[in-house]
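quick q for whoever's on today - can somebody do inverse folding on this one?? i tried earlier but teh output was garbage lol. tokens:
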């Protein structure tokens, strides 16, 4: 099997929530950051695997953790102070980010991050208002 085919298969398996957690753990050590990012967002990954990826050198991998609903919100706090503004921005634009973390991000030193967090908070308030009327 060619190297590209192997990488594609690993990428697809890394994104499969039904993949065995032990295999996801192995894939989380891949040299390919897109594969590690897919594991990071995979709801079937073990918490221990996700926590190790919190310290990944690649910002895209850390950002992918923000999209994993199985990651306890207390760990999103760590992502909210990530040194890379792209990670914080990604968290700030997600409607799944808890309001308490959006409040922190709304005070971020980076104006793009703080503005996006404020906009996301407004969208959450608006969506709750619309839901209450309906």
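ok took a stab at it. sequence:
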């Amino acid at each position: 099997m060619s190297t590209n085919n192997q990488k594609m298969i690993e990428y697809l398996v890394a994104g499969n929530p039904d993949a065995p957690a032990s295999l996801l753990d192995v894939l989380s050590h891949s040299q390919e950051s897109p594969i590690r990012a897919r594991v990071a967002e995979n709801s079937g990954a073990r918490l221990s695997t996700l926590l190790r990826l919190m310290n990944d050198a690649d910002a895209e991998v850390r950002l992918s953790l923000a999209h994993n609903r199985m990651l306890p919100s207390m760990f999103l706090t760590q992502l909210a102070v990530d040194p890379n503004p792209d990670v914080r921005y990604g968290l700030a634009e997600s409607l799944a980010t808890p309001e308490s973390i959006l409040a922190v991000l709304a005070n971020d030193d980076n104006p793009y991050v703080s503005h996006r967090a404020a906009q996301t908070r407004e969208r959450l308030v608006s969506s709750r208002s619309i839901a209450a009327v309906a």
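fwiw DSSP finds nine helices and no strands in the chain. also Residues 1-71 form one domain. so keep that in mind when u check it
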